[in-house]
Amino acid sequence: MSAVNPLPQPERRFMSGNEAVARGAWEAGCRVAAAYPGTPSTEILEYAATYADLYAEWSVNEKVALEVAIGASLAGSRSLCAMKHVGLNVASDALMTQTLIGVGGGLVVVVADDVGLSSSQNEQDSRHWGRFAHLPVLEPADAQEAYEMTREAFTLSEQFDTPVILRLTTRICHVKGVVVPGEREERPVLGFRKDPARMVMTPLNAGRRIPLMLQREEKLREFSEITDLNRIEDGKDWRIGFVTSGPTYLHILESFPDAPLVKLGLSHPAPLGLIRALAEKVEHLVVVEEVEPLLEQEIRAAGIPVHGKDLLPRMGELAPHVLRPAIRAFLGEAVEPEHAPRRTLEFTVPVKVFPRPPTMCVACPHLGIYYCLSKIKNTQIAGDIGCYTLGAGHPWNALDTCIAMGASMGVALGLDKGRSPADKDKRVIAVIGDSTFLHMGMQGLLNIVYNRGNVTILLLNNSTVGMTGGQEHPGSGRDIRGMEAPQVDFRKLVESLGVKPERIHEVNPYELPTLFKALREEVKVEDTSVIITNQPCVLTDRYSHQPPYAVDAELCTGCSNCLAVGCPAIAVTRRETVIKPNGSEKELTFVAIDSAACTGCDLCPGTCGPEAIRPLAEFNRAGARL
Ligand SMILES: Cc1ncc(C[n+]2csc(CCOP(=O)(O)OP(=O)(O)O)c2C)c(N)n1
Ligand code: SF4
Ligand code: SF4
Ligand code: SF4
Q1: Would you state the pLDDT for residue 334?
Q2: Which pTM was predicted?
Q3: Buried-most residue among 198, 286, 300, 523 (CB within 10 A)?
Q4: CA of 411 to the centre of ligand 2 (A)
C-alpha cells in the first residue's frame, strides 16, 4: 500500500469491509486511529494509514489502542480503535469505565469477531460487550454497510455521548463488495474541556455517572425503534419471519428470498417493538444470529415466542448451507443434505488441493529453536501466540500450553511454583515472540523475576508481527507507515525488568551449536534466564537470502535428521525398510531440497552427519555433484 491513498472521489469501488471501514472513518473526519493487529481486523489500520491527514498508529496492545482513541476523543477529535475479538477482552478494562465518561469527539470501537475460527484461539461474540458496557452495537451486512455504518457510528457517538461498537465478522472484514464512497467531512476539533467530575472516575464521580449511562441506553432503545438502521422487510411467505443482524442478512436473502424479516443494523439496544410487529404477522419467528443467542434471549424475555439456537448451531457461520436445511426441516419440508462450498477454484478449473497442515515458512528463524526444544528432554514448555505456536505441531511437538497473548510468562511461573514432587527435575521453559512480549509479556517477565521464578524464556525476536502479516512494532524500528521509529533494545529491556545480565543471551537461531549450548546451560541454572534470538522473519525485507542448498543423493543415508528441522523446502523422496545386523527393521527416509525455495539459511546442513546437504553450486544441471 502506498503512503498516500490515491482514491479519487466519488466513484464505485471494490473494497473489503476493512478498507470500507477505513474509508468511512476518514470521510467522517476521524483524526486519530489506533490498533494492535489481529486477524481479521488488521487491514483496517493499514488502510487508515494510507490517508495522510489521519494520524494512525500500531499501539503495543488493544488496551493502549483504545486509550489512545479515548484521549483523542476527549481532546475533541473523532477517533477510532480497531481490534480482533480477543483484543476487546484486553481493552475491556478501559472500555467499562469509558462508558461512564462518554466522549468528546466521536469514538468508535471496531471489533472483528473471527466467526468460524479462521485464525484465532477461540470464538467469541463481542456483542456481549455492548450489553455489558451499555454501549450501542452496529452490525453491517456487507462492505457498503461497513462504510456507511462507520460514518453513522461517529454521528451516533456524538449524538448520544457514547463510544459506539462496530461489530464486524471475518466475512465482512475480508469479503470484497462494491462501495460507493463519498467525500471527507472536515470536522472542527472541539478541544479538551476540563471536567473532573465527568472524567476523573473516583467512586463518587463514577456513581453519579451510572444513572446517566443507563438513561442513555434507554434513549438508544427508543432510537433503535425509529432509526433507518433497523427495518422490517416484507415478504411473500408468512410461515416464517427472521430477525437478522450482520452478514446473516445476506445469507437469509439468498436462502429464503420470500421470507419477511427484521434487519438490524443497530442490534443493541434491540428494537423490540419492531420485532414484535413482525412476530405478530408470521407463524414462526426465528433469530438468525452468529455465535450466541443474545437477541433470542432478549426477544423471549420480552414475551415474544421465538426460535433460534434450538434450530441453528451456536458456533461458526450461519451460511446458506447451514441455514437452509435447518429451517426447511423445521418447516417440515424435504431436506437434502448440503455441504460447505469448497474453497477452491470450483467455478473455473476443478483442481484438487492437497490437504496441507499449517506450518512455518521455509527458513523461518523459529525452526532452529524448535529443533533444539524437540531434542531436549524433561521439559515443560509454555507457549504463546504467534507463528511460533506452530511449534506445537509436527515435527517438533514442542509446546505444552498456549492460551492467550503473553500467557506463557504467567503459566510458566505457575508450572514452576505448582510443580509436583514427581516433576521436580522438569525444566520449565516459556516461548514468546517479540510483539507478544511487548503486548503483554513484559509484565509477566517482571512477575517471574520478582517472584524468583526458575524459568528459561526464549524470546523470539524476528523484528515483526509475523503471524498477522508482518506489521511493525516498537522492536522493529519502523512505524505503521514504514518510517524510522525509536527501536526497543530487547537485551536492555529484559535487563531493566530485573533479569541478571549473565542470564541473558542473544543468539543467532540459525547457529544450532550456540543455541543448544545456551539452552542446555540455562535450563540447568535455578534462576530466570532469557535467550533472545536476533534474526528477522523471512517474509520481511530485512531478511537476506543466501545461495541455496541441495541434497547429494549419493551421500544421503536416509537418516531423516534434517526433517526434524521442519523446513518445508526439505521433502521426502522415498522410504526404504532395511534389516539391521541384529535382525531388526529400520526405516530409512531419503530426502531432497527444493532449491528454488531454499534461502540458504544454513540450518539443515548442521543436522546432516554425512554432509550430504551441499551448496547447489556444487551440482550440475542433471543433479550430479560437479
Ligand atoms: C489479544 C490478541 N490480540 C491480537 C492477536 C492476533 N495475534 C496473534 S499472534 C500475534 C503476534 C505475533 O507476533 P510475534 O509475537 O512477534 O510472533 P511472530 O508471529 O512474529 O512469530 C497477534 C497480533 C491475538 N491472537 N490476541
Ligand atoms: S511469517 Fe515469518 S515468523 Fe512467521 S512462519 Fe513465516 S518466516 Fe516464520
Ligand atoms: S540429514 Fe543428511 S543424510 Fe540424513 S536424510 Fe537428511 S540429507 Fe540425508
Ligand atoms: S538451508 Fe535447509 S533449512 Fe535452510 S532454507 Fe534451505 S532447506 Fe530449509
Answers
A1: 86
A2: 0.95
A3: 286
A4: 24
